[in-house]
Specification:
Two copies of one chain form a homodimer. By secondary structure, chain A is α/β, with parallel strands linked by helices. Helix content of chain A is 42%, strand content 12%. Chain A starts with a helix and ends in a 34-residue tail after the last helix.
């Protein structure tokens, strides 16, 4: 086993080195990007969220020459970036000080006149952001959830509808996050790996071409998924994140006490993989297959995303040279592995499974355990077929809906749509705090 | 009738003038406040939301000598205040340039170290704000929803629980907004009336005393309601706002075309009051009475809040001298009278009615009409007994829950509560965009 592991690591490193020798574009792998192109790319991008992933994406896209507005709700996240004069990019993939066009806590300023809005928050924030963005979005803007977890785009669209969206936007969700990245201190981030391939689907999927035309300008390795059910049901986070968090209280205590521990190295043991995680993977694949979708096992996913292979899923986690950089949590609620992935990955997988008659006992048992340990009823708080607005549809009708439907509830052509004719100014104030005293 | 109306207006004006001659404090009416006290009040207050009500409250509290942090999601709302050097307060109740301690789009900065957080947004924003505030709140802070509409505090608490609140805060909802106020241009607001009396309830109501001790320092005319079911089921907005918006398409078109029309004068006709609004009032009162709560008719409410009386509800609307300042909408979705009050006032009233066996045909018909006209299913999007987390309780158990229960799901004494022991720094990052690349 030890020699297999070394062989696999060597193979992955060699592949990565050869990839960096190429131009990248069109090769299916990520383009080389540590030296920025002289000519500015004309795309204007808002990166929303300033945690590990937001910093990584904003910084990398700046270094690639894009005009980037970088936004977070919180001053404590952006203050170091402002103080440093940019995002400090560390490591091999992208290096240097990346200066966004704008670093702001104002959401309206951040998204004004941008072509592409990249949402890099936990899925717990999708509904929140949709409710605030609703009145700010403009015709033709593309919104991408990085990633959607399970049901992100469906929940986002339903929220936009509930807040009476009028703009004709494009909405898409990614199957995973394009980078493996971790913060390295205030305003500093290391991209451990830019993935070789990532699938994205628009909602509805008939918008795929419009979305992909723009997205491949940013990430040539992105390819279109069939629809958001494919991206949602191939949610690898559901396998990777909750189980190691819930089943490692002693490691978390030791990490909190100051020991240098790593997420994948120390929390992902062979027993946890074989007794729990592989079973979740199997259930996830069964649900996706029951919908007739292109279902990837985690082994498929690591081969395609990272170029990492191995004889078992355990070996793949431990062979993955990009994973050693991820530190262990010091608190069971860190990383959103429970607060985000239980309600927004496991619960909807169980719900979709229920719809197509696939039992999900491993997923169910993890959800029940999380409810018990954290004292939150994730079954009622999480995303379900019903809460995503798919309630009365058969699986076939759901597929039709995510490919051809109108999840935003925009009106039929030629009719008033939520009183467009009455609108007098550019700012729709459905979310702006306007309230009439009674 | 004409002479009755004049008599009633004269009476209200005389009452108001005599009230302003008094010191205000302890009299049950609002204190005189156009000249600020020399000594600064020590309470630190965050006013969240910068529409009509947020500007009115922030400006008035500044002029009363409080330290106020003024926050909105949006630059377009705060930029005029920053540019003007403060909020321009117009009219008799409060006049002058009010300079908040801080005007910011950063929520973390706005709520840091304040004693009292006054949320002045549409109820549509309650869940959104709770999800963002969750990790920022600190032990002992008081959060008040101005107002809660129906179920505001219950929804807010449920959201805090779902986002794993750890701080021990106090949460309360107001039955109405303390002012009648309207913006008078960018960064300028007129307070038409500060209400004579307003009820507030904490959730749970056993916290009433702690909350009231602070609130009466700010508004002496506030008194405690029995519990949040009382404040929620006496929701006058449900009567006043949706019906005139839905049943006045021609007035809204004329207003959009530039005619000077007023909300109460021109949208509230005798037919609309007698054919619809009084019936909604009756249903609302019946539901509150079925819970054994102190139920106010709209006539009671106008007498207590405004000191305005009259032979019928129609007369009261038209006799109310403070109401003429409210302009007619130019769009059916303005003022949040539909997007906010249908799902957050009418739907929960129907749901509570259903629970106690009170039919609500007038309320139901308005909800159905709104669903048809606006193409949003408010029945499923709105607040219900179930969505507020009260699902399996009897009315008696609900009363017990809102008075003595723990809606935040904080753990039993002496146990780990969502892993408090693991927390290493002051910032809980459940909402901060932290996301682990997978």
């Amino acid at each position: 086993m030890e020699s297999e592991k070394i062989e696999s690591i060597v193979k992955a490193v060699v592949e990565e080195l050869s990839r960096r020798g190429q131009t990248g574009a069109g090769s299916g792998g990520p383009p080389k990007s540590s030296s920025p192109p002289v000519k500015k790319n004309k795309l204007k991008i808002a990166v929303l969220g300033a945690g590990n992933s937001g910093n990584a994406m904003a910084g990398h896209l700046v270094l690639k020459g894009f005009s980037v507005n970088f936004w977070s709700f919180f001053d404590f996240e952006l203050a170091p970036v402002i103080q440093n004069g940019g995002i400090r990019m560390e490591g091999e993939v992208a290096h240097g000080l990346a200066k966004p066009e704008m670093v702001t806590n104002c959401l309206d300023k951040a998204v004004k006149d941008v072509d592409l809005i990249m949402i890099n928050t936990p899925a717990t924030v999708h509904r929140t952001l949709a409710s605030i963005l609703c009145g700010l979005l403009r015709d033709g803007q593309i919104v991408v959830l990085n990633p959607g977890r399970t049901g992100g785009a469906l929940e986002f669209a339903r929220t936009l509808k509930r807040y009476a969206i009028r703009a004709k936007i494009f909405l898409a969700e990614a199957q995973t996050f394009i980078y493996a990245a971790e913060l390295r201190g205030p305003g500093a981030v290391e991209i451990l790996k830019e993935k070789n391939k990532m699938r994205v689907a628009a909602l509805p999927a008939k918008d795929n071409r419009c979305v992909m035309d723009i997205l491949v300008q940013v990430y040539p390795q992105i390819e279109a998924a069939q629809n958001v059910l494919e991206t949602s049901l191939n949610n690898v986070g559901a396998v990777n994140h909750p189980a190691p968090m819930l089943l490692n209280t002693s490691i978390i205590e030791r990490s909190a006490a100051g020991e240098d521990l790593r997420f994948y190295r120390d929390l992902i043991t062979r027993p946890i993989v074989e007794m729990v995680m592989e079973k979740i993977d199997d259930e996830k694949v069964s649900v996706a297959k029951a919908f007739g979708l292109d279902a990837w096992t985690c082994l498929d996913w690591y081969r395609e995303s990272y170029g990492v292979t191995g004889p078992s899923l355990y070996d793949v986690y431990h062979n993955n040279p990009y994973y050693l950089g991820f530190h262990a949590p010091t608190d069971i609620l860190q990383l959103n592995n429970i607060l985000d992935e239980v309600p927004n990955s496991l619960v909807p997988l169980a719900s979709f499974g229920d719809l197509v008659g696939i039992d999900t006992p491993a997923i169910d048992s993890l959800i029940n355990l999380a409810c018990t340990m954290i004292d939150i009823d994730f079954w009622t708080e999480g995303r379900t077929v019903e809460s995503l607005g798919l309630g009365k549809r058969s699986p076939k009708e759901m597929l039709q809906y995510v490919e051809e439907g109108d999840p935003f509830g925009r009106c039929r052509e030629g009719r008033l749509c939520r009183s467009i004719s009455w609108t007098q100014n550019g700012v729709l104030r459905t979310q702006s705090g306007v309230l009439k005293g009674s």
